[in-house]
Amino acid sequence: MPNFEAFGKLLLIGGIIIAITGLLFLIFGRIGFGRLPGDIFIQRGNFTFYFPLVTMIVISIILTLLFNFLRR
Hints:
Elements: H1 4-30, E1 40-44, E2 47-51, H2 53-71
Antiparallel strand pairs: 1-2
């Protein structure tokens, strides 16, 4: 017999994580976090290329510090 209680808890935790991530995207989008100096943005005619290089580096540093802090 499957363990529906454990599966239900897993779905709730996953939903909460997705909701928090969505809220963070909304907040960071409003403060201009996706358009940092150093991000590559090329627009020519009907072609647009966006590579958030500096944004990814900043997110990587923040997550590294956060995970190292939580590990201790």
